[in-house]
Amino acid sequence: MKHFLFALSAAFIMPATAAMACGGSFQGFVSDLKAEAIRNGASRAVTDRFFANVQKDDAVLRADRSQGIFTRPFLDFSSRLISQNRFQNGQQNGRKWDAVFNKIDRDYGVSRGVLLAFWAFETDFGAVQGDFNTVNALVTLAHDCRRPELFRPQVFAALELFERGDLDPLRTTGAWAGEIGMVQMLPKDIIENGVDGDGDGHVTLKTSPADALMSGAKMLNSLGWRPGEPWLQEVTVPRNFDLSQTGLDKKKDRARDWVQVGIVPRTGTLFAPNLPAAIILPQGHRGPAFIAYPNFDVFFEWNQSFVYVTTAAYFATRLEGGPPLNPGDPEPGLDRDAMKVLQQKLQARGYDVGGIDGILGANTRAAVQAEQKRLGQPADAWPTQALLNAL
Prior knowledge:
GO molecular function: peptidoglycan lytic transglycosylase activity
Structural class: mainly alpha
Order of helices and strands: HHHHHHHHEHHEHHEHEEEHHHHH
Number of helices: 18
Largest sheet: 4 strands, antiparallel
Strand order of the largest sheet: 4-3-6-5
Pfam families: PG_binding_1, SLT_2
Protein name: Membrane-bound lytic murein transglycosylase B
Shape: globular
Number of strands: 6
Distance between the termini: 36 Å
Helix content: 40-55%
EC number: 4.2.2.-
Keywords: Lyase, Signal
Radius of gyration: 22 Å
């Protein structure tokens, strides 16, 4: 999950008292973690070895606060992530690991294009897995008070992996947010969804593509993936369409109901006319348009970023043989500073924008669309200078 605002797949809920256990002296915080681990049944000797060399990593905090790539518009973001080399490598890896993908399809029903897209974006097919010490990263983020409810359980999950012999506190490395392996899974996800895909008796996500891909597939399946169903399809939106009906929160019960109001697939026919579906415009009504089926929502369980999810879902369609999209001619968006100003103005009007971060997330999109509709502007949830000026 790289590095995508952190993954929802590990957003476990903790009691309020535990969620507040963060900050203060780092060594004191580690002592509290050790005491809790022992209360939960870990031996003192194992706990002492696990935490013996843990250190706060300020580089982790800098990475956590500098995810500027998510401020880029969809066409820019997707062109950066979907290179010709990545596309070709995806096709080659699809052929190379054909037997594994066939087993995944039988066991979990997850399409190979989806897993190939995540494998590409997470680690360039295993080539770039991150060199942050995993235990240091997790303890640092648990100590930090931004999201302790997410990362504190991961520390104890990492301790469990250590007890199993599947994690080395000194040598296990990965992404800055504590994810490990080719598809970047957090320790609790590994415990719950790890699969020995190559039959060697171990779940080795850093070096075994079979283990990594099957574990990722099992996790997606557990998060609600619907076997054999599509996730995204490019469509054409008519000029007179009511743009306020776009957005993931405005699904129709059947995809074919969108055809009745003038929306048609850009090529071919609807993948699944009887499935629920929404229309999304990642870069406004002058940019690409997609119909999103239920499996598209599962992508958000892997990553919270709308632009990342849409890019991964689109890349998955390309890896499955789909055509390149029509980029259209979208209106210029806002840079990060202007987006922050817009979020401040929206917040002042009573909208919950999910934080003043300059990122066009779901809450900001909803607020933008509501104000566009109020002001008589195209209500496509794409913020422009015209909207900012009007506010």
